[in-house]
Amino acid sequence: MPENGCTIAAVIPAWNAAPWIARAIESVLAQSRPPEELIVVDDGSTDATAEIVRGFGDRVRLVSQANRGLSAARNAGIRAAGTDWIAFLDADDYWQPGKLEAQARLLADRPELAFVSCAARLVYEDGGEAGHWPCMSEQEARTPLETLFRRHAAVAGSGSAVVARRDLLLAAGGFDESLRALEDIDMWMRLAQRGGYACLPEPLVVIRRRRGSMSGDLDVMKTAARRVMAKNRGLLASDRGRFWHQCYAAMLTDYAKWELRAGRRWQAAATLLEAGCHAPLAQGRLVASLWLAWLRGGLPAPSGGSR
After folding, report:
1. How far is residue 257's CA from residue 250's CA, in Å, rounded to a whole number?
2. Checking DSSP bridges between strand 113-124 and strand 196-209, what pairing results, if any?
3. What percent of the chain is predicted at pLDDT more than 70?
4. What average pLDDT does the segment 142-152 reach?
């Protein structure tokens, strides 16, 4: 056991990940502070994913299951682990060598934390740079639950950067397997209600992004966002009802902006009307400004978002 008593299992959910899984595993094995366990959950892959994982021998534990989705695979990894902490990594991403060492040091210094993450470098599948995913501000990190509601976006790095207490993941019920998207935001909200959060500003994770528009995912994402915001409303203090409505309205307004950018004017209009019902004064002014911007040929960028 490490000197600070912090044991960590790396959990990699994988589905048809043959092109990327070896690099993800190698990045875990190359850590300056390696995890006590490395678990790959093969979620019913039909390609060579399992065969590639087996090629690493006893350095990796392979858990196989029928295809049930990302959340179910993560939950299987959590249950299979015998450590205090779970470090998540998606199969198409990879870690920089000092990632776990830096996070383990932070966890040892701050025992009140329920989970930590780090900034991330974003790259396209062809290797082109896609940007940077920074941490929330230190002030925002002091109230992570409210920040997650306000920003309706995942913590930096999310499913490839977070290290979380296993007992709290289990106490919170694990990842919601009924969600088709935004299951990470949902989980981090429930963890934030149970303990503190911190983020390392160094980009210790590399995350792959697809080129192109998110318009094809808009309906799935918006449906999931509504559910995540509604199901977790009870995590907020009872006097934060107005705050929740403002956050819900801001979330819908961002989706309306994406719908407008995708040329889906009627859907955007319906989304904006729904937003106005939750924060009519503030959103009414924003609705008018959105339509004026659209008529003039430009739109403000959405304020939130998630992977």
Report:
1. 11
2. parallel
3. 88
4. 95
Phi, psi of 36 (to 5 degrees): -70, -30
Which residues contact residue 198 at a Cβ distance below 8 angstroms, ignoring those fewer than 6 apart? Answer: 106, 110, 113, 116, 141
The predicted structure's pLDDT at residue 277: 85
Closest alpha carbon to 156 in 232, 103, 218: 103
Distance CA 62, CA 56 (A): 10
Phi, psi of 117 (to 5 degrees): -145, -165
**267 has pLDDT over 90:** no
Instruction: Read off the pLDDT of each residue in 165-182 and give the average, rounded to a whole number.
Output: 97
What's the full length of the chain, in residues? 307
Residues 6+ apart with CB under 8 A from 170: 78
Q: Could you tell me which residues come within 8 angstroms of residue 158 by beta carbon, excluding any fewer than 6 positions away?
A: 117, 184, 185, 188, 306, 307
Highest mean pLDDT among 119-123, 272-276, 280-284: 119-123
Does residue 252 or residue 302 have the better pLDDT? 252
Domain ranges of the chain: 8-209, 215-295
DSSP summary character for residue 32: S
CB of 205 closer than 8 Å to CB of 99 = yes
User: Other CB atoms closer than 10 Å to residue 264's CB: what's the count?
Assistant: 17
Q: What proportion of the chain, given as a percentage, has pLDDT over 90?
A: 74
Instruction: Pick the closest to residue 224 from 173, 272, 273, 187 (CA basis).
Output: 187
- Secondary structure percentages of the chain, helix, strand, coil, to 5: 45, 20, 35
Interatomic CA distance for residues 177 and 154, integer angstroms: 17
In whole angstroms, what separates CA 234 from the centre of its chain? 21
Fold of 8-209: Spore Coat Polysaccharide Biosynthesis Protein SpsA; Chain A (3.90.550)
Model confidence, pTM: 0.90
Q: In whole angstroms, what is the distance from residue 2 CA to residue 140 CA?
A: 31
